[in-house]
Design a protein that fits this description.
heterodimer, A: alpha+beta, Butyryl-Coa Dehydrogenase, subunit A, domain 1, Butyryl-CoA Dehydrogenase, subunit A, domain 2, Butyryl-CoA Dehydrogenase, subunit A, domain 3, 3 domains, 4-stranded mixed β-sheet, 4-stranded antiparallel β-sheet, 12 helices, 14% strand, B: alpha/beta, Rossmann fold, two-stranded antiparallel sheet, 6 helices, 11 strands, globular
Chain lengths: 406, 266
């Protein structure tokens, strides 16, 4: 057992921390107030190698491991949730899905430009009437010659109005759709600009206002047959395996948000005086600080263990789900406490903690709500649920393999 | 074009604590960073390389852990790094440090320009850069704010120096040593690709044996003419707080201005 981060991990962590503090922190409050997604951050992240951090070099990535991905998400969300969301959809849900399931041609065509940050990618599973109820999605794909014709509506899609590539899930077997047999669902790589595909932005969100969240509308979108990811009928399994990676980035990010709450609260508790002493001297404030410490350290261990399992190539659906549930719920509770510690000032956007509270709630819901996570953990414990091997597993991290040029 | 950049690893604090017994800096528990002024020197060298091609070599003298600072320079994009580390170098003052670095630079051989930060944030002497230039008998341009023109063929450089009361444009021949100020550029972050290269690079360590031309009695404490008799923190400045009252902000500002004029602050 070894809890030390490598020299490489520490350098990545330091670089992303400085990057976030210098490039994101100065404008986050303004972007949040104005509900503006600042696209200029994408080429900057690309230049640093962040957008392809754990993708092998021969696929345009930076060749780091899955732990580095987690550390990056923690550092980004410590400064801004919307920056981490980019990593969740672009790397976690899409690029790693291509790495795991894609053909060599698909990897060359889509993964390479994504890992280099030339193209931005997202993931379209959720629909207006189907979130936790994945088999309730209504999108369909019917075969016509060498194309699939996609119809349907995707909702609550991060970067919907920004992304160039979309990973779309739809029913390809209508009989199986009717009887809710998941083997009737398939996955497709779809490009912006194809006829019948439209996107839009959702306004009025509680949090992540500096991020882009929207919908994808598909009306008879022709998708070349070679753009099916995995096999026909494998869509559900692919969707779930992508969530193993998306949830990992969410867990790591939420851990960063807890740290942000802790840092802000400690600073304020040492500055603010009431009853003649800094409020850090009051025991009930200390209790809230102690809880944040506990939640931060626990969330961190949980996500790093999930990252370690990914590095080893060991299936981690259970561990990643646990990390996601714990870290997101803890970030919400920590942000609530952070606002409490800041008192009335915490209620104002003069301080950052109200944004932390608003930003924390989304991740409790998306990528498997806390209720879904609880059902899963109970089912594992009760023996109702086991993970069956997949046709394509996420490859274990091998530094030589990841860093060879061709 | 071959640029050599001299860097120093320093404690990550401007609030340096001094051990009152020994008069030396307390480094324990303080994370180390590349001296911030040196990062501008690294950046300027990388920009020269981007413009003219060639190579950037970074050198540092310090304990073995100073490798971290050199790796950071490689992560930013430097081509090569050399660490000068030996117990024989310990206790060097600015003269002995400059002497040792100059010997290493002579051993490296061909170079067109040497870049240093204007000073280190721990020692704050600003002497090592100029010292290296004197030891190597090359021109020195200190407090450089901007390289206006540089021609490696004609071996000329013209720079803007940032002085206390204005700027000065000076020109000299190459090779030269430049010390740079913070406004010269905005240093880049290491990229992940750079970090990968840095963690895989073995940094050569040169000891006194590797510098045969350096006279042993001119190295380290023995070679240091400066004796630090005492190091201490000056007592914190004491002062009084005066609240300026007034009917309006304008009136308060006027009173404040009067006070400052009276005290000859403005």
């Amino acid at each position: 057992m070894d809890f030390t981060l490598s020299e490489e991990h520490l350098m990545v962590q330091k670089m992303v921390r400085e990057f976030a503090e210098r490039e994101i922190a100065p404008t986050v409050k303004e972007n949040d107030r104005k509900h503006t997604f600042d696209r200029s951050i994408l080429p900057k992240m690309a230049a640093q190698g962040i957008l392809g951090i754990c993708i092998p070099v021969r696929y345009g990535g930076a060749g780091m491991d899955y732990i580095s991905l987690g550390l990056t998400c923690e550092e980004l969300e410590r400064v801004d949730t919307s920056a981490r969301v980019i990593m969740s959809v672009h790397v976690g849900l899409n690029s790693l899905g291509l790495l795991q399931w894609g053909t060599e041609e698909q990897k060359q065509k889509y993964l390479v430009p994504q890992a280099m940050g030339q193209k931005i990618a997202t993931y379209g599973l959720t629909e207006p009437a189907a979130g936790s109820d994945v088999l309730g999605i209504q999108s369909t794909a019917r075969r016509e010659g060498d194309h699939w014709i996609l119809n349907g509506e995707k909702m609550w899609i991060s970067l919907a109005d920004v992304a160039d590539h979309f990973l779309i899930f739809a029913w390809t077997d209508m009989e199986k759709k009717r009887v809710r047999d998941h083997t009737g669902m398939s996955a497709f790589i779809v490009e912006r600009g194809w006829p019948g595909l439209e996107t839009g932005t959702i306004h009025g969100k509680l949090g992540v206002r500096a991020g882009n969240t929207g919908f994808i509308s598909m009306t008879d979108v022709p998708v070349p047959a070679e753009n099916m990811l995995g096999l026909e009928g494998e869509g559900f399994r692919i969707a779930m395996s992508c969530l193993d990676n998306g949830r990992y980035t969410v867990a790591a990010g939420a851990t960063g948000l807890i740290r942000a709450c802790l840092e802000a609260s400690v600073k304020y508790a040492n500055e603010r005086q009431t009853f003649g002493v800094p409020i850090g001297q009051h025991q009930l404030v200390q209790q809230m600080i102690a809880n944040m410490v506990l939640k931060y350290e626990t969330a961190r261990l949980l996500y790093l263990r999930a990252g370690w399992l990914k590095n080893q190539g060991i299936r981690n659906t259970r561990e990643t789900g646990l990390a996601k549930w714990f870290a997101t719920q803890s970030s919400f509770e920590s942000a609530d406490d952070a606002v409490e510690i800041h008192g009335a000032y915490g209620y104002s956007d003069e301080y950052d903690v109200e944004r932390y509270l608003r930003n924390s709630k989304g991740a409790v819901i998306y990528e498997g709500s806390k209720e879904i996570q609880q059902l899963m953990q109970a089912q594992y414990a009760l023996g109702y649920r086991t993970d069956k091997p997949l046709r394509c597993e996420l490859p274990a991290y091998d530094p030589e393999e990841w860093q060879r040029e061709a | 074009m071959h640029a050599i950049v001299c860097i120093k690893q320093v404690p990550d604090t401007t609030d340096v604590k001094v051990n009152p017994e020994t008069g030396t800096l307390i480094r324990e528990g303080v994370p180390s960073i590349v001296n911030p002024f040196d990062t501008y020197a690294i950046e300027e060298a990388l920009r020269l390389r981007e413009k003219f091609g060639g190579k950037v070599t970074v050198i540092s003298m310090g304990p073995p852990q100073a490798k971290e600072a050199l790796k950071e320079a490689i992560a930013m994009g430097a081509d090569e790094a050399i660490l000068l580390s030996d117990r024989a170098f310990a206790g060097s003052d600015t003269w002995a440090t400059a002497y040792t670095l100059a010997n290493a630079i002579r051993k490296i051989g061909d170079f067109d320009i040497i870049l240093c930060g204007k000073q280190a944030i721990d020692g704050d002497t600003g002497q090592v850069g100029p010292g290296i230039a004197r030891q190597l008998d090359i021109e020195q341009l200190t407090y450089v704010f901007k390289i206006q023109e540089i021609d490696f063929q004609a071996k000329r450089v013209r720079v803007e120096r940032l002085l206390e009361e204005g700027r000065e444009v000076v020109e000299t021949r190459l090779p030269a040593l430049l010390t740079v100020v913070k406004d010269i550029n905005q240093p880049r972050y290491p990229t992940i690709m750079g970090i990968r290269r840095a963690t895989r690079t073995e940094i050569p360590v040169w000891t006194a044996v590797d510098l045969p031309d350096a006279k042993p009695d001119l190295l380290g404490l023995k070679g240091s003419p400066t004796q630090v008799v005492r190091v201490f923190n000056p007592p914190p400045r004491s002062g009084q707080i005066v609240m300026i009252e007034g009917e309006s902000p304008q009136e308060q500002a006027a009173k404040l201005a009067d006070l400052l004029l009276k005290e000859k602050v403005i």
